[in-house]
Amino acid sequence: MKIIGFAGLSESGKSYCGKYLEEQHQIPRVKIVRFIEQCRKEYMNNAISLDEFHDFLYHPTNKFTDFFMDEIISRMKQMYNDHDTIVIESLRNPYLGKYFHEKLRHDFTIVYMDTALDVRVNRESKKINRSFEETLRATYEKDQLKIAQGALEYKEMSDIIYDNNGSSIKLDLFLDELVSE
Asked: Residues 134, 112, 124, CA angle at the centre, nearest 5°?
């Protein structure tokens, strides 16, 4: 099974890509947090919050991280074993991307959606019918959180950096080509 993971800042087009591939190519759109949450509940008995589990999971000295990463991969493969490809719509902590790259090699592709701030804000403000200024403020705040979580590291480790400043038609063609390879 091949896994395509999308990364990027807020409103860069990650969800659009996941929805498009699901609707046009019947490729399952996976929320990785679902599998992380399953592990948290099963192994931690809800004793810690999801945010605390994320901190625990990605801590560099944690001896259990590899176990949980392998468990997440195993659960995804079990759930989607009848699919050639799945999409992780939004990659979070870069440790996950590095681990998946090492473990899955050529079966894991990271696509970084590189989109200018003004383009992201314009698209989002039209979509939610909010002023540019309000959307800019909200997007900036979300970006700061994502940057603190390592979103820009994905750009450095990505297999493909897609310039998503153009039209949705151009993006659709890119996605069609991505999954036809």
From this structure: 20
Strand partners, 110: 5
Distance separating alpha carbons of residues 29 and 31, to the nearest angstrom: 7
The candidate with the shortest Cα–Cα distance to 75, out of 48, 43, 46, is 43
CB 150 within 8 A of CB 101: no
Question: Average per-residue pLDDT in the chain?
Answer: 92
90: pLDDT confidence band, cut at 50, 70 and 90? confident
Q: 173: which 2 tokens?
A: 């063609």
Spatial CB neighbours of 127, under 8 Å, sequence gap ≥ 6:
none
**Chain centroid to CA 85: how far?**
15
Contact 89, 34 (CB under 8 A): no
